[in-house]
Design goal:
Strand 1, helix 2 and strand 2 form a beta-alpha-beta unit. The protein has 330 residues and is α/β, with parallel strands linked by helices. The longest helix is centred in the first third of the chain and has 25 residues. Helix 1 packs across helix 2, helix 2 crosses helix 14 and helix 3 runs parallel beside helix 4. It is built from 17 helices and ten strands.
Length: 330
């Protein structure tokens, strides 16, 4: 059950009190950790990851942590040119070829899949529809029963990368020839709103969305199986100049935490913790949905995660860190 915002504020105060109580002892016990820099990418899930990691490193491992505002490509470039920051988290490495080059050269080390499910893109139907009509969980079932999905596919807005892929797939699967109108949304807001509206009335819905997001944390959706992933076909489907479009599912995007090799050698205990620091898309979606529903800050969302998922993050810690954070683990 989600807490109220007022309760979240109390939790924030409690967490700060616990932090203050442990801060001196933690820094004395682990003074060798010293200064640590970590990326804070400019989207909500990455900010949650960073703030959770920062809290644990400071209060459990005695580090002095600086969060560096960044984005995927600038973070990878900074690692290449400056060997900083020490930690880059929520790196979508399919968008950062520089990072992959640094990893191959041994300058950075990938320590975890910070989103354990990977970044997910799917064609989806609501769970209530999948429960009632399980045949719709495959594209063949959808094409054979267009009326059960409302005879409509909800497509991405113009300019989004998924729009190019979906426009290729709609040809490959001949959606319109099978009685499914393709509705091109004008914005991400209307696309999201169509899911919310369908859920409010438990109406049919069929279309594209991605995870982890607040929306899919709030509304349970089921992927439609488009068949096996084929990299050659997918690369063609995302290229507007390729005329050999075909059938392929979306790939799962690998989303990782990476550290510099210098940091890995300097702070093995912290790196061991980071190797376990990972969120499922459902967990992250829940946190983001709570944040959106309560109009909460990232700090409050961080406290929500720490107090709601104690059994998850407790397993990330070594014994010393568990002892220092015992006040929050009760």
């Amino acid at each position: 059950m989600r807490t109220t915002l007022s309760h979240a504020l109390k939790l924030t105060a409690a967490a700060l009190a616990v932090s203050a109580a442990f801060a001196v002892g933690a820094q004395d016990a682990h003074a060798d950790c010293g200064e640590v820099s970590i990326t804070e990418m400019n989207w909500a899930s990455a900010s949650v990851v960073t703030n959770v990691a920062k809290f644990i490193m400071e209060q459990g491992y005695g580090c002095e942590v600086t969060a560096v505002p960044s984005d995927t490509v600038p973070a990878a470039t900074s690692l290449a040119e400056n060997g900083e920051p020490d930690i880059a988290t929520e790196m979508w490495i399919n968008s950062a070829p520089v990072y992959q080059k640094l990893e191959a050269e041994g300058k950075v080390k990938t320590v975890s899949n910070v989103l354990s499910d990977g970044g997910a893109e799917h064609w989806l139907i609501p769970k209530y529809l999948a429960d009632k009509h399980p045949e719709l969980k495959t594209i063949d079932g959808v094409l054979a029963n267009p009326e059960l999905v409302g005879g409509r596919f909800h497509n991405c807005p113009e300019g989004w990368g998924c729009r190019i892929v979906n426009d290729s797939l709609k040809q490959a699967f001949d959606l319109e020839g099978n009685g499914i109108e393709v509705f091109n949304h004008g914005s991400g807001d209307t696309l999201a709103g169509s899911i919310a509206a369908a859920y409010a009335s438990e109406e049919p819905w069929f279309g594209y969305y991605w995870a982890p997001t607040a929306l899919l944390g709030k509304y349970e959706m089921v992927p439609v199986d488009l068949g096996p992933y084929n990299d050659e076909i997918h690369q063609c489907n995302r290229n507007t100049e390729c005329n050999k479009v075909g059938k392929s599912s979306y790939p799962s995007a690998r989303v990782v935490t990476g550290v510099t090799t210098d940091f890995a050698e300097r702070e093995p205990e912290v790196v061991e913790m980071l190797s376990k620091l990972s969120f499922t898309n459902q967990q992250m979606g829940d946190v983001l949905a709570w944040k959106e529903d309560k109009n909460a800050s990232i700090e409050e969302a961080t406290v929500y995660f720490l107090t709601t998922y104690k059994d998850v993050w407790a397993d990330w810690l070594n014994d010393d860190a568990k002892a220092k954070l015992a006040g929050l683990l009760k």
